[in-house]
Design goal:
50% of the residues lie in helices and 0% in strands. The protein is mainly alpha-helical.
């Protein structure tokens, strides 16, 4: 599989349009899921629409991960961005394993994790997510090289910078 550059740019634009709704570190957190979204959640929301998404969030809040909501978000994200599915070979019935880009920021390369942790507002968190998406590798990991650019999101980074001024 190869990265879907257009889908990465589209996700970047969704992040900018929904700055206050994004929080990667709340991945899988039942109390706020749906109020805020991780990257995979934003992909799922765009795919199925707000009404269906809200129904799934309600089910997730009632039944947790057994609802399959997280796995659907990750699968949709993988499919949209052109990433391979990862399944736990020791527990094939378990949910899919998220690629690094869909994990909480403490699974990201240290420079991005530190910047995300130090972010003082929503726009700064989105800026870090855009940098992570720029460094996305075809296997779903994030390039450790902080100067790497695999998908050019300079236009989106400029938009968020202007918005944050």
């Amino acid at each position: 599989m190869s990265l879907n550059q257009a889908a990465i740019v589209e996700l970047a634009e969704d992040l900018i349009a929904n700055v206050e709704k994004y929080d990667q570190d709340l991945f899988g957190c039942k109390s706020v899921c749906g109020t805020t979204c991780c990257l995979a959640g934003l992909v799922r929301l765009r795919k199925i629409g707000i009404r269906a998404f809200n129904k799934e969030v309600i089910e997730f809040k009632k039944n947790g991960f057994s609802s399959g909501f997280g796995a659907r978000c990750i699968s949709d994200g993988n499919e949209k961005l052109g990433l391979p599915e990862r399944v736990d070979i020791y527990d094939p019935e378990h949910e899919v394993i998220p690629p690094q880009i869909f994990e909480p920021s403490d699974f990201w390369p240290y420079d991005l994790y530190s910047e995300y942790s130090d972010a003082g507002n929503d726009s700064q968190r989105v800026t870090v997510a855009l940098k992570a998406l720029q460094r996305l590798l075809p296997d779903g990991d994030i390039d450790e090289d902080e100067n790497a650019v695999h998908t050019d999101l300079s236009v989106q980074l400029e938009k968020i910078d202007i918005r944050d001024r």
